[in-house]
Every structure is written in C-alpha cells, then in structure tokens.
Amino acid sequence: MSTLAEDRPPLPDTSGVVATARVRAGHNGRATTLPLLSSDGPFQLQKLRPRGDLARVDVIGAMSGPLGGDQLALHADVGPQARLEITAATSTIALRGPSDDAATYDIRLTIGDDAALHWLPQPLISTAGSNLRQTCAVDLAPTARLVLRDEQVLGRTGETCGHLTSHLTVLRAGRPLLDQHTSYGHPHPAWNGPAVVGSHRACGQLLVVDPSLTPAARPTVLLGNPDTPAHGVLVPLGGPALLATVVADTATRLRRLLDQALHRALTP
C-alpha cells in the first residue's frame, strides 16, 4: 500500500549540528569543584589537574567545525568564590559547510562574587569560504575577576579569510564595560584596509578585569617593536579593567604580544 507524502513523518533538519556544552564551577569552602561538566556535539570537556587554586577544564574538538549551518554554544557559570581556567587543546577552525547558512558560535560566561575565570582558548581560524558569526557575552559580579583572551587568524597560509563577525559584550554589576563588534572578509568593505587590519592576518585582544586594578594610574602602553609586523596597545577602560588590542602577521607573534600585555596588566 502506498503512503501519501503528507502522511509521512517530516525528514530531520540536516542543515547543521546544534549543540551546547556547559560548565559550572562552585566552591565547597575548601576548593573549587565542577558539579556540571556537560559535553555536546564537537565539544568534549575534560577536567585537568588544578593549578594552584584554579580548577581547569580543557575543551577538545571532537569533530571538524563549526561548518556552515552549525549552531554551537558553550556556557560557563563560575559561582561565588570559585576559580576556573578554561583552555582548548586545538584551534577552532571555521570551515565551508554543506549549507550556505552562517554557522553560529555563542559563548556565555557568568562570574559570581569574588570568583575568577581565565578564558584562554586557542585561536579561531577563519578559512576561505567559511561563514561564522561568533558572540561572547560576559556577565561579571562587582567583585569578580576575569582574564579573557580572544584571537582570530584570518585565513590559512596562502588563502583569504572567510566571512567572520565577532561581537563581544561585557557587563560588570549589570552595567556595560565593553561592547565591541568586528567584521572581516567579504562582503565587509575595507576590512583589510590600513584603518583596520591592513596586511596583518592575525588579530586579537586581551581583557583583564580585577577590582584591585587602578586604571587611572596606568598609562597607555604601546606593544611591539616598530621593526616587526606586530603592533598593539594596552589601554585602561572605564572600570577596573585593561584592554589590549593587537594585530600581527602570524599567530605566534600575536600570542607573544598578548602574553606581554598580560604580564604588564598583572604587574603593579
């Protein structure tokens, strides 16, 4: 007996992977614990040996991605007095997928009172033909501490970058501390002009938020050597925060300057 098309069950949506990984850190009065470590899709979360009072989690990519049409998310919640470091074993590589739809990567970080988060992933690489929209939303309690590193590599060796947009918002005590939107690749005009990245193909930033910082006493610092194709600046923000912005010709030089910025930010 034949079955009418309208009577058949709908085919599953195969436009992309939908996955959300979650981390929750708490403090039991003696040390930071990880009551929730939920892997999903390409995100495999692995608990690492603590470093001092920092609990540590490594994000391991279990598959290629994000690909066009994927909807990926990673949420981390650091409870009061907890200390957490999140790193990544490998770079995130945005690739052309079977769908022309943009891939999305949504990062949400919440840090409670007297808590600390070190968000230190490997670079995001935007490959030719890829289309990725990345958002990172951070919500800080008034006494929370944050070290956040964000790096992008615009194309692999010998290729142009894909279409990449990145939106970073940081709230502290419910008030905006930083709201930054960047776009690279076609169809954004002048993204590789001298006012944006020019000939540089690696860019990134480092944000340090700490209630003990006194940014008013910190002058703006230029990073890098004029004779090398890597330059940056470390500036105070409107709260107890410092922001470094760097462009470079390679990911190695980019990381070197961001590490330099971190050292300067943490040195009184």
From TrEMBL:
Family: Belongs to the UreD family.
Pfam families membership: UreD
Alphabetical keyword list: Chaperone, Cytoplasm, Nickel insertion
Domain of life where this protein originates: Bacteria
Alphabetical list of InterPro entries matching this protein: UreD (IPR002669)
Record's keyword annotation contains Chaperone: yes
Name of the coding gene: ureD
Chief location bin: cytoplasm
Record's subunit section: UreD, UreF and UreG form a complex that acts as a GTP-hydrolysis-dependent molecular chaperone, activating the urease apoprotein by helping to assemble the nickel containing metallocenter of UreC. The UreE protein probably delivers the nickel.
Cell compartment(s), UniProt: Cytoplasm
UniProt keyword Cytoplasm present: yes
Function of the protein: Required for maturation of urease via the functional incorporation of the urease nickel metallocenter.
GO MF annotation: an example: nickel cation binding
Source species: Streptomyces acidicola
This protein's name: Urease accessory protein UreD
GO cellular component labels: cytoplasm
